[in-house]
């Protein structure tokens, strides 16, 4: 507060000697309240020294963002349970590819709408985006409980919930850059773990309640859980500073930077394959009689539980060695685990591979935002736009990935599906290496 007052005095000097009397401090304070507030709110987004990197308010933003991930990415990670239920019971007349379109459109809108909300966040509409997203999420979930036909499920779960997820996508990540710089990877990791916890809790709730109270009320219970948690997030969410000028929808200059452009394309490629196991592993376990139906439904929560650790632990390590240095090996290990699913025959083997894939794929998802933060250190005021562009490009990978995977599964086999997934994840790892070469070179001991 002292530094702000000093700034105001430099901008509006008090001419104490001109009138030969003491300055009217009260009048100055009243006269310049708005200017003081403007200076405080428009702290430079590029000024790292002004970022608190801790404190109660900063960690409350991590809690708020964690909940937003819980109800956006967590819902996307839950779709595998719905996929299996739809395939076996509710929409059994539909093909795997047709059902996958519901989840892929939901995930696509999460990322694509996120691309549009980035500039809106930069313009100061973070609260409005978060409130709007909360309304779409809860409304879509409640409407899903009334659905009877495929097209109704597509509208409610795919489109309405997808839009809600997209509206809270960028606010949940970009807010962290206003409160953290040196601890940004840790903050993002804890935040991103919310998606894993959502992917643990919601599938279990659905699986336990659906047989006893039916699909409509099981779905409504999840809707009420979403409503309660979103209210907590909104209660503590607070924008700390605003950019000093409006931003464009697209930051074309970012795509002229090879590290950023190559990395974003790599994420597009990776997301084509990354979510195949999340969508199909339950169905795979049950259909191939690797597990019984009860254990099969818990494979996805187990994978998401491992993913929670994969988002937090590597995030802490990323603050020390750099997110790219952590993300690259994790990408290749995730791909290897995906390939190994081809040979699994026992419940123990499937659970182990689900844990491994969940852990290392979680690192890919959470670290991608952190990498963009690192690649945009000289353009922090455009962070929302640059994150939005990442999500927007990657969204098309999500859109086409799992439906194409469904076609591969329907026409060929699970072996072909897991090969399809693994090849695209490996390709993403190669593009991240190329991006790192342009960013900091290929020397192993360089923090990148």
Automatic annotation (TrEMBL):
<keyword id="KW-0472">Membrane</keyword>
<feature type="transmembrane region" description="Helical">
    <location>
        <begin position="184"/>
        <end position="205"/>
    </location>
</feature>
<comment type="similarity">
    <text>Belongs to the major facilitator superfamily. Monocarboxylate porter (TC 2.A.1.13) family.</text>
</comment>
<feature type="transmembrane region" description="Helical">
    <location>
        <begin position="414"/>
        <end position="434"/>
    </location>
</feature>
<dbReference type="InterPro" id="IPR036259">
    <property type="entry name" value="MFS_trans_sf"/>
</dbReference>
<feature type="transmembrane region" description="Helical">
    <location>
        <begin position="326"/>
        <end position="344"/>
    </location>
</feature>
<protein>
    <recommendedName>
        <fullName>Major facilitator superfamily (MFS) profile domain-containing protein</fullName>
    </recommendedName>
</protein>
<feature type="domain" description="Major facilitator superfamily (MFS) profile">
    <location>
        <begin position="254"/>
        <end position="448"/>
    </location>
</feature>
<feature type="transmembrane region" description="Helical">
    <location>
        <begin position="217"/>
        <end position="237"/>
    </location>
</feature>
<feature type="transmembrane region" description="Helical">
    <location>
        <begin position="387"/>
        <end position="408"/>
    </location>
</feature>
<dbReference type="GO" id="GO:0022857">
    <property type="term" value="F:transmembrane transporter activity"/>
</dbReference>
<feature type="transmembrane region" description="Helical">
    <location>
        <begin position="258"/>
        <end position="275"/>
    </location>
</feature>
<dbReference type="InterPro" id="IPR020846">
    <property type="entry name" value="MFS_dom"/>
</dbReference>
<keyword id="KW-1133">Transmembrane helix</keyword>
<feature type="transmembrane region" description="Helical">
    <location>
        <begin position="99"/>
        <end position="118"/>
    </location>
</feature>
<dbReference type="Pfam" id="PF07690">
    <property type="entry name" value="MFS_1"/>
</dbReference>
<feature type="transmembrane region" description="Helical">
    <location>
        <begin position="350"/>
        <end position="375"/>
    </location>
</feature>
<dbReference type="InterPro" id="IPR011701">
    <property type="entry name" value="MFS"/>
</dbReference>
<dbReference type="GO" id="GO:0016020">
    <property type="term" value="C:membrane"/>
</dbReference>
<feature type="transmembrane region" description="Helical">
    <location>
        <begin position="150"/>
        <end position="177"/>
    </location>
</feature>
<feature type="transmembrane region" description="Helical">
    <location>
        <begin position="58"/>
        <end position="79"/>
    </location>
</feature>
<keyword id="KW-0812">Transmembrane</keyword>
<feature type="transmembrane region" description="Helical">
    <location>
        <begin position="295"/>
        <end position="314"/>
    </location>
</feature>
<dbReference type="InterPro" id="IPR050327">
    <property type="entry name" value="Proton-linked_MCT"/>
</dbReference>
<feature type="transmembrane region" description="Helical">
    <location>
        <begin position="125"/>
        <end position="144"/>
    </location>
</feature>
């Amino acid at each position: 507060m002292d530094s702000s007052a000093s700034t105001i005095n430099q901008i509006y000097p008090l001419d104490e000697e001109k009138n030969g009397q003491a300055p009217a401090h009260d009048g100055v304070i009243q006269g310049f309240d708005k200017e003081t507030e403007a200076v405080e709110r428009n702290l430079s987004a590029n000024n790292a020294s002004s970022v608190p990197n801790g404190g109660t308010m900063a960690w409350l933003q991590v809690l708020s963002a964690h909940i937003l991930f819980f109800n956006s990415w967590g819902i996307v990670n839950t779709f595998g349970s719905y996929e299996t239920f739809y395939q076996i019971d509710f929409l059994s007349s539909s093909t795997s590819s047709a059902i996958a379109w519901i989840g892929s459109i939901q995930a696509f809108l999460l990322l694509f709408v996120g691309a549009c909300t980035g500039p809106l966040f930069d313009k100061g509409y973070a609260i409005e985006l978060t409130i709007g997203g909360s309304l779409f999420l809860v409304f879509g979930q409640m409407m899903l409980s009334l659905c009877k036909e495929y097209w109704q499920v597509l509208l409610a779960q795919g489109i309405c919930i997808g839009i809600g997820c997209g509206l809270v996508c960028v606010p949940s990540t970009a807010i962290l850059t206003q409160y953290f710089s040196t601890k940004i990877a840790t903050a993002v990791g804890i935040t991103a773990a919310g998606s894993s916890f959502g992917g643990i809790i919601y599938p279990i709730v659905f699986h336990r309640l659906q047989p006893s109270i039916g699909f409509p009320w099981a779905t409504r219970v999840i809707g009420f859980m979403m409503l309660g948690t979103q209210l907590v997030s909104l209660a503590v969410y607070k924008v700390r500073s605003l950019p000093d000028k409006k931003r464009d929808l697209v930051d074309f200059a970012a795509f002229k930077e090879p590290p950023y452009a190559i990395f974003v394309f790599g994420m597009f490629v990776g997301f084509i394959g990354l979510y195949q196991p999340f969508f199909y592993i339950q169905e795979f376990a049950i259909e191939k009689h690797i597990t019984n139906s009860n254990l099969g439904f818990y494979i996805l929560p187990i994978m998401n539980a491992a993913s929670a650790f994969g988002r937090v632990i590597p995030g802490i390590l990323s603050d020390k060695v750099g997110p790219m240095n952590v993300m690259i090996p994790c990408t290749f290990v995730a791909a290897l685990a995906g390939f190994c699913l081809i040979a699994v025959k026992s419940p123990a083997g499937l659970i182990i591979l689900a844990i491994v894939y969940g852990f290392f794929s979680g690192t890919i998802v959470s670290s991608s935002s952190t990498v963009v933060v690192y690649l945009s250190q000289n353009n922090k005021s455009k962070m929302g736009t640059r994150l939005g562009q990442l999500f927007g490009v990657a969204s098309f990978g999500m859109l086409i990935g799992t439906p194409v995977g469904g076609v591969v599964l329907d026409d060929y086999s699970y072996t072909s599906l897991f090969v399809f997934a693994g090849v695209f994840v490996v390709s993403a790892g190669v593009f991240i290496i190329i991006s790192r070469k342009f960013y900091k070179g290929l020397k192993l001991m360089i923090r990148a």
